[in-house]
Amino acid sequence: MKVVHLRYPHELNLANETTAYSLAVGFFDGVHKGHQAVIRKAKEMAEQLNIESAVMTFDPHPSIVLGGRKEKVFYITPLPQKLEVLEEYGVENVFVVHFTSDFAKLSPEDFIQYFIRDLNVKHVTAGFDYSFGQFGKGNMETMKELSNGDYGVTVIDKQSDEEEKISSTRIRRYLQDGDMESAGQLLGRAFEVPGIVIHGDKRGRTIGFPTANIQSMEGSFIPATGVYAVRILVQNKWYDGVCNVGYKPTFKNPDEKQLSIEVHIFDFNKNIYGEEVKVGWYKRIRSEQKFNGIEALKAQIEKDKNESIEFFARLRNS
């Protein structure tokens, strides 16, 4: 997959672009099922027109540049992770447009000139609510009206489940609540956090449950504290496990707020310090709690482990 970073107005040197594209355009945080419908259609049009598929996304999130949101926005998929997911979905090209205040001032007409026509885009696909140009004045009707026959336009209708529209906002809410099953339903896959295995306090091995201590990739969102059924990708192989996210209240002073992510990997005994891994989050088993002593903690971890094993057995048989 080819990745091209674009910045307005200094790096638009693609006016002589000869490759033609079918372009899916949007922010695509999470690359959830709604986004996948847009990308799938762009890929279909690329095949139909015998041109290359492409996705245009933006970085950073527009609300960071423009403000206006009361709540802090976190990324479901920070840019490096988003690019990985897009590659897995078979996208041939990604244009990452650096979202700046200058870019935000572009008129809809200029956006189309610089980022559609100058890139030799022959077909544009986006969601029904996609907007562009200063103050979001441009919408998909504008995209059609200003095409002058230079490119085709496909608008993807609202994608919903039985509750409401599939959206990044809903997924963020589920992640904050630790509802990984609902988040996974909307994503079409488990929520994943990349990271690296670091040295911890090694207390787990002394009680019979050695853990991999994970330092998450900067910018990754960590779900609500608690215990989860997870899978972890180590050296290109997925393993089942159980994960504790929290502050280890049984051992730590509650005033020392140091969040840890610890995964007990089933049937695994390798030394993996320094390895890059991914944690896939499937189900929240319980909240984090403080135990009266080591034996009570060990008994609960055994129960958590068995619940995780049973969960993945059901998942495989479903």
From TrEMBL:
<keyword id="KW-0288">FMN</keyword>
<dbReference type="InterPro" id="IPR014729">
    <property type="entry name" value="Rossmann-like_a/b/a_fold"/>
</dbReference>
<keyword id="KW-0511">Multifunctional enzyme</keyword>
<dbReference type="InterPro" id="IPR004821">
    <property type="entry name" value="Cyt_trans-like"/>
</dbReference>
<keyword id="KW-0285">Flavoprotein</keyword>
<dbReference type="InterPro" id="IPR002606">
    <property type="entry name" value="Riboflavin_kinase_bac"/>
</dbReference>
<dbReference type="Pfam" id="PF06574">
    <property type="entry name" value="FAD_syn"/>
</dbReference>
<protein>
    <recommendedName>
        <fullName>Riboflavin biosynthesis protein</fullName>
        <ecNumber>2.7.1.26</ecNumber>
        <ecNumber>2.7.7.2</ecNumber>
    </recommendedName>
</protein>
<dbReference type="InterPro" id="IPR023465">
    <property type="entry name" value="Riboflavin_kinase_dom_sf"/>
</dbReference>
<dbReference type="GO" id="GO:0009231">
    <property type="term" value="P:riboflavin biosynthetic process"/>
</dbReference>
<comment type="pathway">
    <text>Cofactor biosynthesis; FAD biosynthesis; FAD from FMN: step 1/1.</text>
</comment>
<comment type="pathway">
    <text>Cofactor biosynthesis; FMN biosynthesis; FMN from riboflavin (ATP route): step 1/1.</text>
</comment>
<dbReference type="InterPro" id="IPR015864">
    <property type="entry name" value="FAD_synthase"/>
</dbReference>
<feature type="domain" description="Riboflavin kinase">
    <location>
        <begin position="186"/>
        <end position="313"/>
    </location>
</feature>
<dbReference type="InterPro" id="IPR015865">
    <property type="entry name" value="Riboflavin_kinase_bac/euk"/>
</dbReference>
<keyword id="KW-0418">Kinase</keyword>
<dbReference type="Pfam" id="PF01687">
    <property type="entry name" value="Flavokinase"/>
</dbReference>
<dbReference type="GO" id="GO:0005524">
    <property type="term" value="F:ATP binding"/>
</dbReference>
<keyword id="KW-0547">Nucleotide-binding</keyword>
<keyword id="KW-0548">Nucleotidyltransferase</keyword>
<keyword id="KW-0808">Transferase</keyword>
<dbReference type="GO" id="GO:0008531">
    <property type="term" value="F:riboflavin kinase activity"/>
</dbReference>
<dbReference type="GO" id="GO:0009398">
    <property type="term" value="P:FMN biosynthetic process"/>
</dbReference>
<dbReference type="GO" id="GO:0006747">
    <property type="term" value="P:FAD biosynthetic process"/>
</dbReference>
<keyword id="KW-0067">ATP-binding</keyword>
<dbReference type="GO" id="GO:0003919">
    <property type="term" value="F:FMN adenylyltransferase activity"/>
</dbReference>
<dbReference type="InterPro" id="IPR023468">
    <property type="entry name" value="Riboflavin_kinase"/>
</dbReference>
<comment type="similarity">
    <text>Belongs to the ribF family.</text>
</comment>
<keyword id="KW-0274">FAD</keyword>
